[in-house]
Amino acid sequence: MEKSVAMQCKPATSFAIGLLLPVVLGALLPVSTLALTWGEVIGIGAGVTAVNTIRANNQTRGGYYPPEAEYGRGVNDGIKHLRYDNPRNSSAYDQGYQEGIRRASRGR
User: Fold this and answer.
1) Cα–Cα dist 64/80, whole Å
2) What angle do CA 84, 86, 87 make, to 5 degrees?
3) Which long-range contacts link 53-59 to residues 24+ away (Cβ below 8 Å)?
4) 34-49 b/e with 16+ CB inside 10 Å = b?
5) What φ, ψ does residue 4 adopt, rounded to 5°?
6) pLDDT tens digit string along 71-93?
7) Quick check: 104 pLDDT over 80?
8) CA 18 to the chain's CA centroid
9) Is the pLDDT of residue 4 over 70?
10) 100: how many CB neighbours lie within 10 A of its CB?
C-alpha cells in the first residue's frame, strides 16, 4: 500500500505545503472567490502539520512487531508497573505483561 504525499512529508514540509496551498489557490481563483488573511493561511498550515503528525504517530503505534518484541515490551511494562498498553491486541504482549507482574511481585 502506497503512502500519500502528505504522509511522507516531514512536519516542516507539510507546514510549507499548508501555507502554499491557499496562496496558490488565491492566485488561480478570482479575488472575490477566495480571500484569506495571513492568520488563516498560518492556521491552515498548522492544521496540515497537526494532521500529518497524528497520522505518523498512528502508523507507528499500529505497525507490526514480532511476537518476541511484543513479549519483551510486555515484560518490561509489567516489571516497571507501567500502564497496560497493547494497541495491536498481541497475545505475546499479554503473556509478557503477566510475566513482568509476576517477576515484579517476586522482587526481580
Assistant:
1) 24
2) 135
3) 53/11, 55/6, 55/7, 56/7, 59/7
4) eeeeeeebeebbeebb
5) -75, 165
6) 999 999 999 999 999 988 899 99
7) yes
8) 18
9) no
10) 23
